[in-house]
Design goal:
Elements: H1 2-18, E1 38-42, E2 53-62, E3 69-75, E4 85-86, E5 94-100, E6 108-116, E7 121-130, E8 148-150, E9 156-162, E10 165-168, H2 189-194, E11 200-202, H3 210-213, E12 215-217, H4 219-223, E13 233-234, H5 238-248, E14 259-262, H6 265-269, E15 317-326, E16 329-336, E17 342-347, E18 358-359
Antiparallel strand pairs: 1-2, 2-5, 3-4, 3-6, 6-7, 8-9, 9-10, 11-12, 13-18, 14-17, 15-16, 16-17
Amino acid sequence: MNKLFHFVCVCILFSFYGCEQDGASPGNGNSNGNTTAIVLTTNAASSITGTTAVSGGNITSDGGSSIIGRGVCWSTSPNPTLVNSFTSDGAGIGSFNSNLTSLSPNTSYYVRAYASNANSTVYGNQISFTTSSSGGGGSGSCSGGPSTVTDIDGNVYNVVTIGNQCWLKENLETTRYRNGDVIPTNLNNSQWQNTTQGAWAYYNDSSQYNNIYGKLYNWYAVADARGLCPTGWHVPTDSEWNKMVKYLDPLADTSQNIYFQSQTAGGMMKSIGDLQSGTGYWQAPNAGASNSSGFEGRPGGQRSPNSIGGQNINGAEGHWWSASLKDSTAWFWSIGYNNPQVLKYYNPKRYGFSIRCLRD
């Protein structure tokens, strides 16, 4: 009876208030007179399989009126609302878990927590994840290991098995080394260009991109003995990147030290959808994108030595550092919107690229 009651309440509330709250962010509810806004956040997805996942939310303010309905909404398009699939997970403030079911394998989903009181329905921040492949690509856990990993800052990452390697499924977000020491940031162009110490920056120098793309680190942070990745994980070497590419594409020429190693593996690594249709983060056509590996590669761009805003802000490219050197430079891997290929190249250590961690 309780679940049915909450479901009915949510539906009634949505019919009166749901549309006007579409797209609201935490704290942006309809305050209706003297009431304050509901405040809530969305939990990162975990325990991801081909057809299920777990999310939820945390409500820290009821907006002056008791919460009578809460849960999460999800869709394959951004900004889901109660017109899409949703759960009904009780009432009241505080944290709650939500079980997402009947999902499709190898599919990217967008999720937002919601909460309803007598005055409004408000949606939390949006998170996204991709279900596991049903055909032997990536899986949402490590063999003999965890389904999620937490870094020194408390950021939680999903994992994916590709071949016999276990990778983080999102780009690194930490602001501290493994031992707790702070990694410098907010460097101006001159400081960034001349430092030989580890440093990080936001994509386009804006924190709004952190949850989507993670942070951009120079190679000095990669090489720092204090450890950039969570305990039990490391920045992959040249040979470890080669191993992943060769698993995805047995025809890949991983002896190729410069230029394109594979004509197809990049598509298997890219998240699906595009900016123009509102279904993803890449420029159209996002050629060959299937994300069949579960790697969920996104166009994190770069922080160039002489440009604080970075480059490739328009959804064109994603770049990931290797832990291996090439003379006085370092290797990196890259994928782009206009082809399904994987590029291996090298750049000066002062560039800022994304980081993916690999299990030890």
